Structures are given as structure tokens and as C-alpha cells.
Amino acid sequence: MATFEHSIFLELGISALEQLKVPKENILAVPLNKRTEKSKLFDTIHQSDGISLFDLAAALATAFSVIGGSVGFHLEWGPIIWGIIGAIGGSVLGFLIDILTTKVKHDRQRKVKEKTSELILIVHCDSDQVEKIEKILWDNLAFGVAVLDNENQSV
Question: Which secondary structure element, helix H or strand E, spans residue 136, and what is its range?
């Protein structure tokens, strides 16, 4: 078994397998469907991606609240109102910074992961052909190759 990207190397690999006397009936190519929905920015109660949009907002809300309360002693509305204004302003600022940094990270990761497995190629062969077939698959830019031994049921 091997995974590939749709490319000319896949076709060359299949041709090389056929030249190695592997019958067409023993070669199975299964195309994979790509994920079409975008990943969700906000977590739900049932799913979490480990990225928090609340941490920086809470930290900045606390810091700006303390600063607003301290400065508020010298301002007209007093320390409580300025503390609340500081908390709201800090949480909005922290939330916006987290959203922007998360979006930038997501875009970079998506660009890096452009090469994905698009097809699984399964070849049924005799045990004496395994090494040659494995070499052909690797030479034709397989993303991963696995050998399943049917006699011992182990990988």
C-alpha cells in the first residue's frame, strides 16, 4: 500500500509495476476526497482544537482594568468606570490579536500542507516481489509505503 499525489509519477509507477509483471487486476488505485469545509475558528463543547481565543483577552482585560482603575482616581468618572472601560477595551484588543494571529498561523500551515495524499495505491503481489515494488513506489515519490503480510497478518 502506498499513498500518492495525483501526478505523472503515479502513472510512471503503475507502468513500472506492470513491466515488473504485476497483473492489472492486482493493482487498485483508490482516489481520496479532499476536505471541503474550512476548519472552525471557535471551539464547541464537543470539539476543541487546543487554540484558545480567550487567554490573551483575559490577560489584557486584567491589565487594562488595573491600569484604568489606577488612572481613574485622577479622572472624572472614577476608578470603577475606568476599570470597567479598561477591562472591556483590553478583552476586545486581546481577542482581536488572537484572531489575527490564529488566522495568519492557519494560512501558513495550509500553504505548507499543500502536498497531501490524494490516492491510495494497493498492490497485491508475491513475497519475492515486495522489495522491488517497494523501491518502485518510493522512486515514484510515494508519500508513504506499507507492507501487509497476509500470511502472518502483521505489518
Answer: helix 130-139
- 50-89 confidence digits (pLDDT tens): 777 888 999 999 999 999 999 999 999 999 999 999 999 9
pLDDT band at 153 (very low <50, low <70, confident <90, very high): low
| CA 139 – CA 133 distance, rounded (Å) | 10
Q: How far apart are CA 73 and CA 38, in angstroms?
A: 48
The residues, any chain, with a CB within 8 Å of residue 34's CB and separated by 6 or more, are 116, 118
Residues 146 and 155 sit within 8 Å (Cβ to Cβ): yes
Per-residue pLDDT averaged across 24-40, rounded? 82
DSSP codes joined into one string, 26-67:
GEEEEEPPPP-SPPPSS--SS---S--SSHHHHHHHHHHHHH
Q: Is residue 33 over pLDDT 60?
A: yes
Q: Are 118 and 80 in contact (CB under 8 A)?
A: no
pTM over 0.90: no
| CB burial of residue 95 (10 Å; 0-12, 13-18, 19+) | middle
User: Is residue 4 within 8 Å of 136, Cβ to Cβ?
Assistant: no
